[in-house]
Amino acid sequence: MLFNSIEFLIFFPIVTLLFFVLPHKYRWFHLLAASCVFYMFFIPQYIFILLVTIVIDYVAAIWIAKTDGKKRKRYLVISVVSTCAVLFVFKYFNFFNDNMLLLSHKMGFYYPEHVVSFILPIGLSFHTFQSLSYVIEVYRGNQKPEKHFGIYSLYVMFYPQLVTGPIERPQNLLVQLRQEKTFSYQNLSHGLRLILWGLFVKMVVADNIGAYVDQIYAKPESFNSLSILNGLFFYSFQIYCDFFGYSTIAIGCAKAMGYNLMDNFKNPYLAQNIREFWQRWHISLSTWFRDYVYFSLGGNRVKISRWVFNILIVFVLSGLWHGANWTFILWGFAHGLVHVAEHFTKKIFKWKEVTDKILASVVRFFNGIKTFVIVTFIWILFRATDVHHAKNVFLSVFRNTSVGDQLHVDMKTWIFLALFIVLDTLLFNNRFDRWCDKRHFVLRWSMYALMIFGIIVFSSVNNFPFIYFQF
To answer: Where exactly are the structural domains of the chain?
Structure first.
């Protein structure tokens, strides 16, 4: 079920109302049933794949807690391998098979051409990582195994963040699922604010600029350099507004019932470097890789050469997590290279060492621009269909200086994007619902009215699916 659909407009108030009407002891079942309905709106039969990963990690965590020594580790390995095997089959098998077939042709050995093809279940990468975090935390002794199968299933399937996160940890969400929640006007108010803000950002900002991005990437050779640069700029904000919008709606849906999910974005395009960018972008994923991969490899407590290796491995795996395509692997590797390069040149761009306040502000401003430009060009790899396509888009920026058509952009699209950039800057290290608490009620309700008006009147005619659904 899409957040920006009529079905969800009916689904959300009914589920939230019934949640508070029902006694606490029945709420887990109500939310689990609602989450199943929510997920089955996509491809119903794929809920059984989700059930497989739930059963594997539920049983494994109990066995891990009961045993010691090598057996304990063996159960962890079985759980991780089994869960990742499900992810591999549905997400990476086709990619692996295609590359093995290509390699066999080039090297002259026989490799059978498989005709099996799998469709990636919605949100498989997200709930796989959430399930893995539970098992790992149980193994590390930071989380007791959940004996109630229904509660654990709800932890994996909690509908607000089931499809595209945030990827929650058991210490945060699992604990809350057992707590008795009472109705709170403040929680409902904050939740509705976040839902409205997320829908506006997605449906009015992201979807309107997405139409122009599609034109540029469909035929980059047909447009001049300025139009292509404009398309790259637009895509940076399309993917941000699209994913930020979904995460904000998810947090709002949970907040309305009294559940607190982690913030997934904190003004990433105001970051000073790539390291800070990843501290602000898709925070639930970046911290997942930090805690379960980077630290396991030794983190920064190793030789500098090993640290470089650790950083590159983490970023490559992050790219591979996003998609079974060489473009995603190269996208992650590019971020890793920039992260390493900035580490060795950090003194050059360190604005905090500048004593003059005006000069420090100038350095900070150019650091922000530098980071945004780098991220924007690396996004080409993320958006392109393959490496050849990415190369074509990149080269067209420089070779189409005097050829190609000019892409016309509606004024309202520029206005909506500018409005979002201004608000996003005003919300630096803050969240929309909390920011509204400090505004006069006239200003607050005027903003709500304008957002509702914008969603009704100016939503894109193209109902773009959320970009991160493909992961």
So the answer is: 6-183, 186-272+349-470
Find how far residue 313's CA is from the centre of its chain.
Answer: 19
The confidence score (pLDDT) of residue 41 equals 85
- Token pair of 140 as six digits: 């590390």
Q: What is the pTM (predicted TM-score) of this model?
A: 0.92
Tell me which amino acid residue 383 is: R
Confidence of residue 4 (pLDDT cuts 50, 70, 90): confident
235 three-class SS: helix
Neighbouring residues of 411: CB distance < 8 A, sequence distance ≥ 6: none
- How far is CA 350 from its chain centroid? 29
Cα separation, 445 vs 460, whole angstroms: 24
Helix 124-140 and helix 304-322, axial crossing angle in degrees, nearest 10: 140
**Are 189 and 68 contacting, i.e. CB atoms less than 8 angstroms apart?**
no
- Residue 344 burial by Cβ neighbours in a 10 Å radius (0-12, 13-18, 19+): exposed
Cα separation, 344 vs 364, whole angstroms: 18
Quick one: which H or E segment has residue 97? helix 93-107
Whole-angstrom distance, CA of residue 279 vs CA of residue 271: 9
What number of other Cβ atoms are within 10 A of residue 370's Cβ?
A: 15
Residue among 294, 333, 327 nearest 312 (CA): 333
For CA atoms 368, 281, 297, 321, give the dihedral sign: negative
Q: What is the dihedral of CA 331, 335, 336, 340, to 10 degrees?
A: 150
**Phi and psi for 100 in degrees, rounded to 5?**
-65, -40
368 token code pair: 């922000």
Mean predicted confidence (pLDDT) in 260-272? 94
